[in-house]
Amino acid sequence: MGELAADKHVKFILSVEKRKDDFESVAMEHLRMNGAYWGLTTLDLLGKLDSVDLHEVVSWIMSCQHESGGFGGNVGHDPHILYTLSAVQVLALFDKLDVLDVDKVTNYIVSLQNEDGSFSGDIWGEIDTRFSYIAVCCLSLLHRLDKIDVEKAVHYIVSCKNMDGGFGCTPGGESHSGQIFCCVGALAIMGSLHHIDKDLLGWWLCERQVKAGGLNGRPEKLPDVCYSWWVLSSLIMIDRVHWINKEKVVKFILDCQDTENGGISDRPDDAVDVYHTYFGVAGLSLLEYPGLKPIDPAYALPVDVVNKIFIGK
Ligand SMILES: [Zn+2]
Fold this sequence. Notes:
Blueprint: H1 6-18, H2 23-27, H3 32-45, H4 54-62, H5 81-93, H6 102-110, H7 129-141, H8 150-158, H9 177-189, H10 198-206, H11 225-237, H12 246-255, H13 274-286, H14 303-310
The chain binds zinc ion (ZN).
């Protein structure tokens, strides 16, 4: 088995930050905030967050905030709850949450909760359990979880639970690993994991491991490095991660590295990108791969960052 090409991945992430005019960065422009979260969290897990200019990043993030309190994916782009969580997470990485007007961000998120407990992603109203997770995670990081109707938020997520133990994006929606992470993560943060049938869900999640060792998002689909994160984090939160073959997942992720130029792809020999590089490294961190900082499975931030927020050290 190969090893993690950590230095190459650091170089890859830093080079993506600098390339602002090529196709990938233009195509990614509207979600640059998410890209910043993926890239910078990867650097932190690798112990290299100090290779970026903190002040530059913080001032760019704050220039993406709107009057409503929400953040856009880049300067001049509409606010959305997706980018708002990424902005808060990146500020948390740098221990800079104090630059935020916390009430303003809180009011924005609170305004997106609907009567049935669900959350919309923005003023246009699309509803998805992803947005429930984001709202809950974001408010918890800001110590403002009490500002939403937690009971209704839990109730809505539970209403999206399926017979197979998994969760979908709305009631009756098909179970999917990404959606399961969001629902399990939100329930974990709200102290409501007792609503989950851990053995049933654990079984469904373990069946996501294919022969090659990687994990898929749904039955019959190809394995993909990003599902290492969605599936493993969920299994850890419900205490069933020992049900899968960890060594084989590690090997699959390492096989998806570009060992020459850095970066990790979805499957071996595909083109690398920041998204899969983050989920690959984060997945290895969950598997306690040597040399990586541990990551919190519910907040998707390094454990030391989460501890600083909740324990103050
Ligand atoms: Zn993927």
